[in-house]
Specification:
This protein folds into three domains: 16-55 and 181-284, Sandwich (Jelly Rolls), CATH 2.60.120.260; 74-163; 294-465 and 516-704, Alkaline Phosphatase, subunit A, CATH 3.40.720. The longest helix is centred in the C-terminal third of the chain and has 39 residues, at 488-526. Helix 8 runs parallel beside helix 11 (488-526). The protein has 15 helices and 39 strands. It is globular and about 75 Å long. It is α+β, with helices and mostly antiparallel strands and 712 residues long. 20% of the residues lie in helices and 29% in strands. It comes from Engelhardtia mirabilis. This is Choline-sulfatase. Its EC number is 3.1.6.6. Belongs to the sulfatase family.
């Protein structure tokens, strides 16, 4: 094979040694054992560029160069843009410049006109309206893969400076933060070979790695991105993949001969972002060599428990989700499952950290999980699991710290069908390590919309929940009516119309989710590897039962009662009425993986001797102190309100709609003990939550889902 030699103008990258994590081979240590796997991103730090700026060798890009940013903090790509590079935009007075790579943040781009930095549109603003274009002459903004400039004519001389993301050192080595992807790995800068040294072995091994690249396909003009792997200075493998703006990831396997000591990675082709994702070296193994089970968690965001037949005591074929019902019929169904918060961020953060909402602190849109908190995925990764997440972003994202512990965290706004396709790719990867796969979808979340099967009026009418007294007595009015000028009764009638229309769309959304999940269930049924499957939700949705709508505002059953069932080896199918919560799922998953629970976790493994005493929930969106707290123990439920202050009891067997509360004047010893337990679980974390920093696109996505961004 040919020797690798630096191209003209390319300084060789500094070599960095990666320590071998376990004992070396028999040849080196006198024993008869195989070497431990070597994660190449562990101990790796991106070296600073040794010189610059210099030109990249990409053909057709004479104006594209790189230069250091600070002292090893990153790389700046410099693009000199000729007049002809600008295109007329969709609005009069707007000129558009296509960028060669996607931006992680809009602030990663700087536009210089005649060597002077041009002013931006106000930060946080999305694409401008015609009036905003006129009012902001000479200003610009970055949007995805483009720069928009408000100017009567395109600039004669302009330069764009793009900060290329390199990542940071994390608990498992170098951590990449890329557009729509957060992962363990090594950033690959064009023109900069990355060399990693490691301890030699007396036997052949293999390097398993996923090559990732993102480029503007229109700008790349058909050129592929080329990845080259040199072992001890000799070319060992070369791969090409298409330039795609959303980023493409492909798993590769490269032979590492006995005695090899280094791998050098190089990327060429059109200007792009590129990385080696989750690279590790090991002797060839089969998945069957490790008897630990795979674990797959699917979380259907905003899905009410009564969308599943088991929670309605109904025929599995009579509702909107027959596919999920069929899997539930072969699973252990927890009829008393509750979420610990009535909206996405605190609820899923509790599942992934094992801590109650006030204990982890991510209780509003401006808070991100502190790095120091425990992570379920991190414990499994330390134990040798391949940890991957496929989400639809927004709150379930790196912006909010939910990516920590996952070796690969793929987050993007996409259809549930694309989410399932990505999850299937993770399942079909022939990686020999056991897998923890976390999948989340907003398909049942507002804005609701029907799927290919259209509305289900008969099913929706049969399952329609009872309305609260204010809406029940209101005359049903067309939801499209203009509410201006209507009296209170008229407004209630319009609101009732909106609620009933949205219910029909919500049921149709549940049906569409069910249809999209069919390939996932089929793939899991066909797996030869022992696999635990979890299906659950993070909260429900209100449709007028207590004269309200949506979620996040209260702790009624329609908001915190969730579906939860588990399927897998030695799991007996059937119904379990035990009161449990998502906090109990965290140690359950750890036990399946054979991992000791973190001592800070508060849940109890499902099926354990002490499981099912009570479930606790908190409604808090914008303050340290929750607006309300709930305790559920069997058929008894208590809700404590702050405004006005009151404590109410509900017998869920006699009053499942929670329409007939009983005031609690003097708590019983049992209730006092439960309240003391909830107070103990309400202690804020020792490390303050980080402030979530969101870009315009993330803010727009939050608003589209009905949330207000950056509350604190």
């Amino acid at each position: 094979m040919p020797h690798a030699s630096p191209s003209p103008g390319r300084p060789a990258s500094r070599a960095l040694a990666v320590p071998l994590l376990g004992a070396l081979l028999a040849a080196g240590c006198g024993g008869d054992q195989r070497p431990d796997p070597v994660p190449l991103s562990a101990g790796y730090e991106v070296p600073p560029l040794e010189a610059g700026p210099w030109r990249l060798p990409a053909e057709g890009w004479p104006g594209w160069s790189l230069e250091p940013l600070g002292s090893g903090d990153g790389v700046t790509a410099v693009l000199d843009t000729p007049l002809e590079a600008w295109e007329r935009g969709p609005l009069d007075g707007v000129w558009v410049l296509p960028l060669p790579v996607p931006l992680l943040r809009p602030t990663d781009a700087v536009l210089l006109l005649d060597d002077v930095e041009a002013p931006r549109f106000p930060l946080g603003q999305a694409l401008p309206s015609p009036a905003e274009v006129e009012a902001n002459r000479g200003r610009w903004l970055a949007a995805g893969s483009q720069i928009w400039l408000s100017a009567p004519e395109p600039p004669q001389r302009a330069q764009v400076r793009l900060t290329l993301p390199l990542g940071e050192l994390g608990p498992f080595g170098w951590r990449l933060r890329l557009p729509q992807l957060s992962a363990n790995g090594i950033p690959l800068t064009m023109g900069q070979p990355r060399r990693i040294d490691f301890a030699p072995s007396a036997v052949e091994r293999e390097l398993r790695v996923a090559t990732w690249s993102a480029a503007n396909a229109e700008v790349a003009d058909g050129q592929p991105v080329t990845f080259r792997f040199d072992v001890d200075g000799r070319e060992a493998a070369r791969f090409e993949q298409a330039a795609t703006f959303v980023g493409s990831r492909t798993t590769r396997c490269i032979e590492i001969p006995a005695g090899a000591r280094s791998v050098t990675l190089t990327v060429d082709g059109p200007p792009c972002l590129a990385a080696a994702i989750d690279p590790w070296i090991d002797v060839p193994r089969a998945r069957s060599d490790d008897t630990r089970p795979d674990i797959v968690v699917f979380l259907a965001d905003t899905l009410r428990a009564d969308m599943l037949a088991a929670y309605r005591d109904d025929d599995p074929g009579a509702g909107p989700m027959p596919g999920v019902d069929a899997l539930a019929a072969r699973s252990r169904v927890y009829l008393g499952a509750r979420s610990n918060a009535p909206w996405t961020l605190p609820s899923q953060a509790s599942l992934l950290t094992g801590l109650p909402p006030l204990g982890h602190g991510a209780i509003n849109s401006g808070r991100s999980l502190p790095d120091a908190l425990p992570r379920l995925a991190a414990l499994l990764q330390e134990a040798g699991y391949r940890t991957a997440a496929v989400t639809e972003g927004v709150y379930v994202s790196a912006d909010y710290g939910l990516d920590r512990g996952f070796a690969v965290f793929d987050e993007r706004s996409r259809s549930v069908e694309r989410t399932v396709e990505t999850a299937l790719a993770e399942l079909r990867d022939d990686d020999p390590r056991p897998l923890l796969l976390y999948v989340q979808s907003y398909r049942a979340h507002a804005p609701y919309h029907a799927g290919p099967d259209g509305p289900l009026p008969d099913v929706a009418a049969r399952l329609r929940p009872g309305l609260g007294p204010r809406l029940r007595d209101a005359a049903l009015l067309d939801p499209s009516l203009d509410p201006r000028g209507l009296d209170e009764a008229g407004l209630a009638g319009v609101f009732r119309g909106v609620v009933e229309r949205d219910w029909d769309l919500y049921v149709a959304s549940a049906k569409a989710l069910d249809s999209a999940l069919a390939p996932l269930w089929s793939a899991l049924d066909e797996r030869a590897v022992p696999t635990f499957t979890v299906f659950t939700s993070d909260h429900g949705e209100e449709f007028g039962e207590h004269d309200g709508a949506s979620h996040g505002h209260a702790l009624w059953e329609e908001l915190i009662r969730i579906p939860l069932f588990i399927h897998g080896p030695d799991i007996a199918p059937g119904f379990d009425p035990t009161t449990v919560s998502l906090l109990d799922l965290t140690p359950t998953i750890a036990s399946w993986a054979g991992v000791e629970p973190d001592p800070r976790w508060v849940g109890v493994p499902l099926g354990g001797a002490s499981a099912g005493s009570a479930a606790f929930a908190w409604a808090c969106t914008s303050a340290e102190h929750p607006e309300s707290r709930a305790i559920v123990a069997g058929v008894d439920k208590w809700i404590e309100w702050d405004e006005p202050q009151r404590l109410q009891h509900f017998d869920l067997e006699l009053d499942p709609n929670e329409w007939a509360p009983t005031p609690v004047e003097s708590p019983s010893p049992t209730l006092e003990a439960l309240q003391a337990r909830q107070r103990a679980l309400s202690v804020p974390p020792a490390v303050a939550p980080r402030r979530a920093v969101l870009g315009p696109e993330a803010r727009a996505r939050l608003r589209a889902l009905g949330y207000a961004a950056d509350e604190d």
